[in-house]
Design goal:
Strand content: 5-15%
Order of helices and strands: HEHHEHEHEHEHEHEEHHHEEEHEEH
CATH architecture of the largest domain: 3-Layer(aba) Sandwich
Radius of gyration: 21 Å
Structural class: alpha/beta
Number of strands: 13
Largest sheet: 7 strands, mixed
Distance between the termini: 53 Å
CATH superfamily of the largest domain: Type I PLP-dependent aspartate aminotransferase-like (Major domain)
Number of domains: 2
Helix content: 40-55%
CATH topology of the largest domain: Aspartate Aminotransferase, domain 2
Strand order of the largest sheet: 2-8-7-6-5-3-4
Length: 392
């Protein structure tokens, strides 16, 4: 029976990691792996996380199961940051549960949408590759529309066209901020137009907020999500703490449901629990408990925000230097300065990306996506020169 299984293609990013690791050149640059790096090329553990883990070690008195809902103290402590401090539950209409990372949150959100009757999911492309894989694996139809134009700005016409064609049996999946992989976000004025258009179309919004705090700040990066939630009767929200708390390997996320009325919330959450029980049973506790301890402690919260600000400042400096380079060869790097988050796409052909790797030791995804945090003030000139060389 098992011999009926067909060989699956290797994950392109994992293959890229191996190629980078096997490259003996000391000047090689890794722009593929989607984790934050300091100016020295490290991915450190946050000081606030270290302090919370120390406190957790000293006070935790059990490793017993928490249940499929996970650490509800963590889930509720996040809510003011995500939804705003004035009644973040919107009168009891919002509730959530812990998930294994943002991937688990997106998976559960899409599964809840399907169970509720959604048959199609609209999504701007390009998008995070796992979005399409999750939607396909759940047996939902994916309808794509262009997220951005060749000029490096969002394609509002494509989005509005998709909403005009969508039906009330559809969902639309939107990135809350720091779009992966393009770094091209909707401006606040564009969210002001998107939110009523979603309401008019009657589609279910699925909002993926995986990088809050890495664009303009925690409050600023929540604008689009909150604007949509102020307009629509119901929504699903997928959240990740893996990036803004540096908890990649601990898999810390949450999914939230917003219902039209508070009395509908228990039924929705019960379905979330049932789906989680069948998928992963219980989420991992350690990382979520550390986040909860940070958000319960004013001093640790201030330490975390300071570390997050430092991350955002460093990435802005990298983007500013890329933008200042202007045109490198035939590639205009200027638009990268106005983009947000870890990722951007450098418009190189497959042959040019191969040359970047083989000739210059620069490792980037085949789509042209780069992790800007992989660039430092010591290697950024090398990267710009490599782009110029392969694109002449």
């Amino acid at each position: 029976m098992l011999n009926n299984l067909q060989q699956q293609p290797a994950d392109a990013l994992l293959a890229l990691i191996k190629l980078h690791n096997d490259d003996p050149r000391t000047s090689k640059i890794d722009l593929g792996v989607g984790v934050y790096r300091t100016g020295q090329g490290d991915t450190p553990v946050f000081g606030a996380i270290k302090a919370a883990e120390k406190k957790l070690l000293e006070t935790q008195n059990s490793k017993a199961y928490l249940g499929p809902e996970g650490d509800m103290g963590f889930v509720h402590a996040l809510m003011p940051w995500v939804f705003g401090r004035q009644d973040p539950t919107k009168g009891g209409r919002i509730e959530g549960m812990q998930t294994p990372g943002g991937t688990g949150a997106v998976r559960l959100a899409c599964a809840l949408a399907k169970r509720a009757g959604v048959k199609r999911v609209w999504m701007g492309t390009p998008s995070w590759p796992n979005h399409a894989q999750i939607i396909a694996d759940l047996g939902l139809e994916l309808k794509g529309f262009k997220h951005n134009t060749a000029e490096g700005v969002v394609d509002m016409d494509a989005l509005m066209g998709a909403l005009a064609e969508a039906t009330p049996e559809d969902a639309i999946l939107l990135h809350g901020c720091c779009h992966n992989p393009t770094g091209i976000d909707y401006a606040n004025a564009q969210w002001d137009a998107i939110a009523p258009a979603i309401k008019a179309a009657g589609v279910l919004p699925i909002l993926d907020l995986a990088y809050q705090g890495l664009g303009y700040g925690m409050e600023e990066d929540a604008y689009g999500l909150r604007r949509v939630l102020a307009e629509v009767p119901e929504a699903l929200i997928a959240y990740s703490c893996d990036k803004n708390f540096g908890l990649y390997r601990d898999r810390v996320g949450a999914v939230y449901v917003m219902m039209e009325s508070a009395d509908q919330v228990p039924a929705a959450i019960s379905n979330g629990h049932a789906l989680a029980r069948a998928a992963w049973s219980m989420p991992p506790d350690h990382g979520a408990a550390a986040v909860r301890l940070i958000l319960e402690d004013a001093d640790l919260t201030a330490m975390w925000i300071d570390e997050l600000d430092q991350m955002r400042t460093r990435m802005a400096q990298v983007r500013a230097k890329l933008a200042a380079a202007g045109v490198a060869g035939s590639v205009n790097l200027s638009p990268l300065g106005g983009q947000n988050g870890l990722f951007s796409i450098v418009p190189l052909s497959a042959e040019q990306i191969l040359a970047m790797r083989e000739k210059h030791g620069v490792y980037m995804a085949g789509s042209g996506r780069i992790n800007v945090a992989g660039l430092t003030m010591n290697n950024i000139d090398q990267f710009i020169a490599a782009v110029a060389d392969v694109s002449v």
